[in-house]
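Priority: low. Protein: HTH hxlR-type domain-containing protein. Input follows.
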Amino acid sequence: MAMLIRMSRRSYDQYCAVARALDAVGERWSLLIVRELLGGPRRYTDLHADLPGVSTDILATRLKQLEGEGLVVRRKLERPASAMVYQLTERGLMLRQVVDVLGAWGLDALGEPRPTDAVREHWVTAPRPAGAAPVDNPAAAVTAGAES
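Result:
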């Protein structure tokens, strides 16, 4: 496997797999971008719409960083769409397990939505770990998960 050498202004500078992984996806918004791309290729405008609170500058910067890490590629869709989309590479898709486990871990702390919380249905209905029961009512699943 080819070793990716990256020049970054921010690094933990530790010879540790966890530190190197965080160098790649530890910046604010990075894993949330990955979460959005786990559903398939997305246009920049769709990513921006489903990541409320992220500025266009930060989104563009994080996408470039994720591209530089070999986790995301930008490509043009075939006609008639002809839109530019971002999608995860094979290495980026390996982050599904990380996002799933982090989501399961965070479920206990979810509680009730705060008045300022954005909510998107696909955040609740995103793929769950293998063996998880299907969810008929995503809103009820969030509430039930928060109460258990």
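The radius of gyration is 17 Å. Residues 127-148 have pLDDT under 50 and may be disordered.
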